[in-house]
Structures are given as C-alpha cells and as structure tokens.
Amino acid sequence: MIETIQHGSLKWQHITNPTEKDYAFLMDTYHFHPLDIEDCHETNHRPKIDEYDDYYFLILHFPYFDKAKKFVRISEVKLFWGKDFVITIGKAH
C-alpha cells in the first residue's frame, strides 16, 4: 500500500509492507538502482547511505517497544530522497 502526501512540488510516498508491484512501480517511475531495490527486499541491513547524482538511498534503524513481548526491538526503514520526492519503506508492527 502506497500512501502519498503532496506539498507544493514535494511528494512523500510511504510504502508499508511492499509488494513486488510496489517495487516495480519504484523501478519504472524513479529508475532507482537495482541494488537499492534488492536491499529493500531484505531486512537486517546495517544502516547506510548511498549517494547518486539524482537521489540518496538510506537504511535507518529505529528502536520500538514490542508491547506483547515487552522488549525493545529494531525497526528498519528504507528511504529514497531526491529533489522533489521522499519515499519511505517500512513494515507494520
């Protein structure tokens, strides 16, 4: 599911639990590097940033509290950032 917020020329799209259709959309629309899309398929990466001529790709980790197990866990968020867009990818907890 892709949620979109637009403010002026800036568009923020958030994808929760992405599907292959969502990844195809990103490749076809934004032409992101295939290795970045591959990184989006997997979890448990180290935080990183890749810099390209027209966008950045980041993998970030954030702590969250798992109420059911009463334990602090790590949530991984992938982020594409360009001149007029921000795309975040994450999983629902």
Offer a few descriptive terms.
93 residues, 2 helices
SSE blueprint and pairings:
Elements: E1 2-7, E2 10-16, H1 20-30, H2 34-41, E3 48-51, E4 55-66, E5 71-82, E6 85-90
Parallel strand pairs: 2-6
Antiparallel strand pairs: 1-2, 3-4, 4-5, 5-6
Q: Brief overview, please?
A:
The protein contains two helices and six strands; from the N terminus they run ββααββββ. Strands 1-2-6-5-4-3 form a six-stranded mixed β-sheet, with no helix packed on it.
Description:
- The structure is a single chain.
- This protein is globular.
- The protein is α+β, with helices and mostly antiparallel strands and 93 residues long.
- A hairpin with a 2-residue loop joins strand 1 and strand 2.
- The chain has helices spanning 20-30, 34-41, and strands spanning 2-7, 10-16, 48-51, 55-66, 71-82, 85-90.
- It is built from 2 helices and 6 strands.
The ordered string of helix (H) and strand (E) elements is EEHHEEEE
- Report the β-strand fraction as a percent range: over 45%
Query: Can you count the beta strands?
Result: 6
Shape: globular
Percent range of helical residues: 10-25%
The largest sheet is: 6 strands, mixed
| Backbone CA Rg | 14 Å
* Amino-to-carboxy terminus distance: 15 Å
- Biggest sheet: strand arrangement: 1-2-6-5-4-3
* Mean of pLDDT: 94
Unreliable runs, pLDDT <50, ≥5 residues? Answer: none
Number of helices: 2
Sheet/helix structural class? alpha+beta
